[in-house]
Design goal:
By secondary structure, the chain is an all-alpha fold. Helix content is about 75%, strand content about 0%. Helix 1 packs across helix 4, helix 4 packs antiparallel against helix 5 and helix 9 packs across helix 10. The N and C termini lie far apart (about 60 Å).
């Protein structure tokens, strides 16, 4: 391994430590108590070193959010919905998104559930590409298709696509706050929740 690769790995390691420390402080004390000095103390670095990577605490939080959202966008963009059962396609769409968030529940709780202004501004200002990647508009297109095929109840597909994502994010928030560590229970609950939500708009078989 060359010097440049080692330096890159070391930088990434420090960033991960900063992210982890910032998330823990927000969870334990709230965003208002977060500071560069407190982060540096938690990971045994000097504040000046942290400032080498980030301008301020808002910059750190934004970096954490972007790292998580980029992974979600990439995964959802490449998700294939090829099941012959259309209910399963919709279920797989939402289930993939839920599981991506629940991979990092502490970070989600720290960043998304703390009413942080900089995140709110970014969160509700997606680019057109991001909107499509997150399947928000594609969900409506899928619902339109199913409605034309006579699979759905007579619903406003635009509203129901929006309601679906609002519901899914509410479910995620509750799962994160409950902090249930029983994976089997969580997986079963996700399946039951999605079956309940999806069956509400599809016609009875």
């Amino acid at each position: 391994m060359g010097i440049q690769e080692r330096r890159k790995m070391e930088k990434e390691k420090i960033k991960r430590e900063i992210h982890k420390a910032a998330s823990e402080i927000i969870i334990d004390e709230g965003y208002s108590k977060l500071s560069i000095r407190k982060i540096a103390s938690k990971i045994d670095y000097s504040p000046s070193l942290v400032y080498n990577y980030y301008e301020n605490k808002a910059d750190i939080v934004l970096s954490i959010w972007k790292e998580k959202s980029e992974k979600i966008i990439h995964t959802m963009s490449n998700l294939k919905l090829n099941d012959s059962d259309e209910k399963n396609n919709i279920k797989n769409l939402f289930k993939t998104y839920i599981n991506l968030i629940l991979e990092s529940p502490k970070e989600y709780r720290a960043i998304m559930l703390n009413n942080i202004d900089i995140i709110k501004k970014v969160n509700f200002n997606f680019t057109e590409e991001e909107k499509n990647s997150l399947k928000i508009r594609e969900t409506k297109k899928q619902y339109d298709k199913y409605l034309e095929e006579g699979l759905l109840r007579p619903v406003d597909t635009e509203k129901y696509a929006f309601f679906s994502w609002i519901s899914v994010n509410g479910f995620i928030s509750n799962m994160v706050l409950s902090d249930n560590q029983n994976k089997e229970f969580v997986d079963k609950l996700i399946d039951e929740y999605l079956d309940f939500m999806i069956n509400g708009i599809f016609k009875n078989d």
